[in-house]
Amino acid sequence: AELAMANLPSLRRDEGGVLFFQPAPLFSGVYFLARGNGAGFNPEGKEMLDLCRALPPNLSPQVLRLSLDVTRSCRTDEERAQALSAFFHEGFTYGKGYPFSGSSDPVEEFLLKRPPAHCEFFASGMALMLRSLGIPSRYVTGFLVQEWNGIGGYYTVRERDAHAWVEAYIPKRGWVAYDPTPPGALSGQRGGLLGRAREWLDWMSYQFQKLKAEVAGKNPKELLRLALDRLQALGRWLVEKPWRLGILFILLIAENLLGKKGALLGFFRRKEGKNSRRDAPCIARLRACLRKVDTLLESRGLIRPGHLTLLEWSREVENLLTASEARTLAIRFLDAYSMVRYGTPLPVEEDLAGLEGLATTLESSFKDS
User: Could you tell me the pTM of the whole model?
Assistant: First the structure.
């Protein structure tokens, strides 16, 4: 019933049993679905809880000692989880560009040295400490929804709102969410006149995108009916509060006169600069390098499924690739690529040259085998 309500144009299952669909013509990504309770998956079953207690085989004993010290006075798992969350709030600071050395596990280094870091390190660190105490925990990613648009009556979720937190299994309560990231680090809603203007601009953009989605694929007769409905709705909205027309007029003038130079709208819009990660030339080099390795692996029948991250795919390659030298090189490349591509700082020439060298060596290895 829930899937039917989503108005899906198609729903398919891949060879691994994962359900996926592409929800609308204007959406460029793919959603993946997991089966809910009652279909062979028990989020509180022994298998799941054991999996969520697993620890790295080479975990430093210092992490366990730190966990025991923080929770020494606690009597229950719930108290231990609360104490660990408070430990991060009070003893750490939020920041980006964490320059971990690479000679040790970055999460362990974060816990023991306490450098400023982003939410992924806080969530991973707390999950690791919980598991070291035998408390089942899992790393959760999503979005922190907090920006309310009073004009349209909805919440706005942006790329910058991506967040990570932890769920711990507490007896008699089930899975309980904890957010170890210091709360002051999480950006809130911009207030005042500028914040209100931002709400109007977001609302206008939302209406435009909504209209684009509605007109897609409609014939002329349906488009005319839709246009009349929208004009009537706009008229009722303006009659209700006529001053809204003045605000729309001002914003449209600002769009035409100042939008290109960014004197006004450039402040409100979240456009990435020329030196952003997405547009940086070094990212194009990285992608070209990854495509080369993907092509090499595909020549051996190894095609990465869309739902696997590069690190997950690295583990699959380890099991599927038979040539030992090529397997080692492929794993080294995928692991190094993930660290360089998704690290906070932009990659430098040394990073790029190293990855391109690994890709070339892998190509030679495939030719020789």
Answer: 0.53
